[in-house]
Write a structure and sequence with these properties.
The protein is α+β, with helices and mostly antiparallel strands. The chain contains three helices and nine strands.
Length: 160
């Protein structure tokens, strides 16, 4: 087997909160010869919950596709044993993203900016969930905080 992918998950956001849930990871391993595989994971159906106002995270998934066939990946169960694998079959595991802790509107806007710059969230998600407003700075590719806009939006969101 060879590991084709081992990276932070970017298809979903972690659970929002004053302290966001953990980012999931993606691991994809490809068979270099025919063989058999066994996989065990959890949270494919049950969403990791948030607590004290934090939002829920995202479920896990397991997908299998053949690297050489060009066919679309197919979802498989979280647990299986003795599944036949052919040359080029790849099993991809997307781990769950954790639920958030605490009200997202209490998250320090500077930390939300860090999350944006690290690529963990988008500007639209930050605005909608965290009530943080950004402005483009200098070259149009960087972001800065709009403190006045953030305060106004958060007050509006708190008011309901």
């Amino acid at each position: 087997m060879i590991c084709d992918v081992h990276e932070i998950r970017d298809d979903v956001f972690p659970g929002a909160g004053e302290f966001p849930g953990g980012m999931g990871v993606v691991k994809s391993q490809r068979f270099l010869t025919p063989g058999f595989m066994t996989h065990e994971s959890d949270r494919n159906e049950d969403v990791p919950w948030g607590i004290f106002g934090g939002h829920e995270g995202a479920t896990a998934a397991v997908r299998i596709h053949n690297h050489d066939s060009g066919e679309a990946p197919r979802e498989v169960a979280a647990k299986f044993s003795g599944m036949r694998a052919e040359l080029g079959d790849a099993v991809t595991y997307l781990s769950p993203c954790g639920g958030g802790y605490g009200n997202p509107l209490k998250r320090d806007p500077a930390k939300v900016l860090d999350d944006l710059l690290d690529g963990y969230i988008t500007a639209g998600h930050a605005r909608q969930v965290y009530g943080v407003v950004f402005k483009a700075v200098t070259n149009g590719y960087d972001w800065g905080l709009d403190s006045i806009g953030t305060d106004a939006l958060r007050n509006q969101m708190r008011a309901g």
